[in-house]
Write a structure and sequence with these properties.
alpha+beta; 24% helix
Length: 160
């Protein structure tokens, strides 16, 4: 029997951004198990590294994630987050944080993050991010240039 989150499991070959991360001592509880809230911190690190790799692919090795997003006149923030815990990470584990954009809407996009320890999937995180105009800080349509850059970068083209 599968649950609803099984449809979110993508093979690692679908991710062009996979970032290694070592669990630090302060991220775990007294039993040495990573505290639940830290999975969203790991997801944020994965998204930051995703944007860094996307910027490098689109603009070259000296590009930064911040200047890349602002070159489209916008930026994004998280509107919604879902976390499906599959297994615990422990202090000093070496994790892999895989991130990819899976869907674009008019003013938002969905980002899927998988967190692995070796071959073991520990967490599936789904973020809905909203695009906003940098000048007005109001929600705006996702910049077509950003969409084009993502589509060129992704191993699997995001849905529309």
């Amino acid at each position: 029997m599968s649950n609803d989150h099984d449809s979110l499991i993508d093979p690692l070959t679908h991710f062009n951004s996979i970032h290694p991360l070592r669990v630090r001592y302060n991220e775990a509880d007294m039993q040495g198990i990573v505290f639940n809230a830290n999975y969203l911190v790991y997801a944020d690190i994965g998204v930051t590294e995703y944007f860094r790799k996307l910027a490098e692919a689109a603009q070259g090795p000296d590009a930064s994630a911040t200047s890349f997003l602002s070159s489209f006149g916008g930026d994004c923030w998280v509107r919604h987050a879902e976390v499906d815990f599959r297994g615990p990470a422990h202090a000093d584990d070496l994790l892999s944080v895989a991130a990819r954009i899976t869907r674009f809407g008019r003013t938002s996009f969905a980002t899927l993050i998988h967190i692995y320890r070796g071959e073991t999937l520990l967490s599936i995180i789904k973020l809905t991010q909203v695009w906003f105009d940098s000048a007005s800080e109001k929600v705006a349509p996702v910049a077509p240039g950003f969409i084009a850059a993502v589509e060129a970068f992704e191993a699997v083209k995001p849905k529309r």
